Request: fold
Amino acid sequence: MNVMTRRQTVAQPTSCLPEKWCVLLLTGAVLAGCEAVPTRFASGLSAEDRALALALPVHRDSLAEGSYRSVGSVTGVSCQITHDDPYRISERNALEELRLAAFQAGGSAVMEVKCNSVERGQGARRCFRSIECAGIAVETGKAN
Reply:
């Protein structure tokens, strides 16, 4: 009597790509769906510039008129991509992202900073949960 198990009757998927290529393609597809890749993955800054950026002052209010020149609006996001992502969102991480964005824009400080918690389905980011901080990057000691 020839008995086949269920495991033997199920067709196994085949692929012409090596396994590491599949992982890279899947990772690329996931990242392509994000509007901005959090800098916990890649900031593009040297270690020295990153240290300088993370030292930028953050002001919740506006600075004194004439003591700065606006560089532009910046945002920072602490993003938990999926419900089981081990990364834990925090305002501290979102502020780090904000400082990095301000530094890359040419700012020496950030003013009028506001942070909000965002649940899935809200906001522009494709995160399961996130904290988003927004502010104005400025060069201090410069007039408009």
Summary: The chain has four helices and three strands.
